[in-house]
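Progress note, project year one: complex with IPE.
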Amino acid sequence: MSTNESSAMEQLSVEELTAKLEPDLLPKHVAIIMDGNGRWAELRNLPRIAGHREGIKSVREIITACQELGIQALTIYAFSQENWNRPLQEISAIMGLLEYYLSTELAKLIEQGVRFRTIGRLDSLPASALQWVRAAEQKTAHLERLHLTVALSYGGRTEIVDAMQAILRETQEGKLQPGDVDETCIQQHLYTHGLPDPDLLIRTSGETRISNFLLWQLAYTELYFTPTLWPDFRRRELVQALLEYQRRERRFGRVLSTISS
Ligand code: IPE
Ligand code: IPE
Ligand code: MG
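Model obtained:
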C-alpha cells in the first residue's frame, strides 16, 4: 500500500474499514500471539499485571469482532510453556486473571455461540484455574458459531512430541502400522486435530518471531506483524490485519495461473 493509500485508510471509521472487507475472502481460522502487555504497562509506569488486565479487554473485543464477522475459528496464545520461567508473582497473577476471565465471561461466550477449547499441557495449571477451564469446555461443547482455542501452557515442540508418543503407543498396540504414519496421521494426533490450519497469524508488539507457537500448523499461514501492543489491539486493528490478508496472494508453492484449477 502506498503512503497516500495508508493515510486515506487512517481517515476511515472502523465501520467504513469493515465495509471494505470481502466477506467471501475472510480467513477461516485466525491465530494470534497476544504480545506486549508488559510493555504497555511499563510505558504507563504501571505493574506488568495491569497490562495483562487491559489485554483481557482486547481478548473480549477480538472474540466479539470475529464472531460478528463470521470467522469460524480463532486461536489465541495466552501462556506458553516458556512463560513458566517468569517470576512466580506474575505467573500467579496471570492464572488469577484466567479464572477471573472465565468466571465473568462464560455466560457471554455461551450467548455468543463460542465453543471454548484449550491446547497445551493443562495439567501444569493450578487446580482452581483448571476447574474453570474444564467447566467452560463442557458448557460450550455444543456451540459452533466461533471455535475459540486458547493455548495455555502450550509449546509447539511439545505438541509434536506428544503426537509422536501417541502414534508410537498406537503402533505398539497394533492400532497403527508404521506405514500409516503420514501428514494426515500426524495432524490427527496434534492438540489441534479437527481444526483447519490457520490462514492468518497475527503477532502484536513488534516482535517478528513465532515463539514456539503452532509450529506444524503454520506451514503455509500468512504472517502479519504489527507494532501495536496487545492491549491496544482492538476491532480496528483486526480489520486492518484482515484487509492486509485479503491483499495477499496465497500461492502454496504453485504459480498463480494454476491456483484456481
Ligand atoms: C504477552 O505479553 C502475554 C503473555 C506472554 C502472558 P507479555 O507479558 O509478553 O508482554 P511484554 O512482551 O513483556 O511486553
Ligand atoms: C509469546 O510471548 C507467548 C504468548 C504471547 C503467550 P512471549 O513474550 O512469551 O515471547 P518471547 O519471549 O518474546 O519470545
Ligand atoms: Mg512478550
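The pocket of magnesium ion (ligand 3) is lined by residues 35 (CB under 6 Å).
DSSP finds nine helices and six strands in the chain.
No further modelling is planned for this target in the current period.
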